[in-house]
Amino acid sequence: MLKVYLKWFRNHGSKKQETKPPLNMGRKWMDHWVIDSLWKQELLKKICDEMRVKPRSSEMMTHYFKYLSALVDSLSEEEIEKAIKTAEEWNWQGVSPKAQADVMKKKSESMIQHFVREMYKRAGMRVFVISAWKNDEGKVLVSG
What we know:
By secondary structure, this protein is mainly alpha-helical. It has 5 helices and 2 strands, in the order H-H-H-H-H-E-E. Helix 2 packs across helix 3 and helix 2 (31-51) crosses helix 4 (77-93).
């Protein structure tokens, strides 16, 4: 009787959609993203000071894109050209270590969890991950 139930659940169980990886590895940088990456801390500080909202809150995100657009509009032609050249450089040679560290802080845990889930789901493998990276000061940090 148990086999009948298992077979029914296997045939009629709802399948979840495939999960997308948390980061697009082949991303091409554009000048807008370069400006966002390089000026992020100043933007966040300005929003906190002027709007009196907490960092990483939903209220912060409602103001963030408005301030980012205002920042892009206020940049001079030279700064925009510099951002375009930086985007081309990052696309060709790779992203600067500071930008890599920022992405790592935001995305590393979710990327590792996605990898572990996919390996277990597709291959039945249990995976243990030890990660190491350099922080902004060049110090090597390890977690497992």
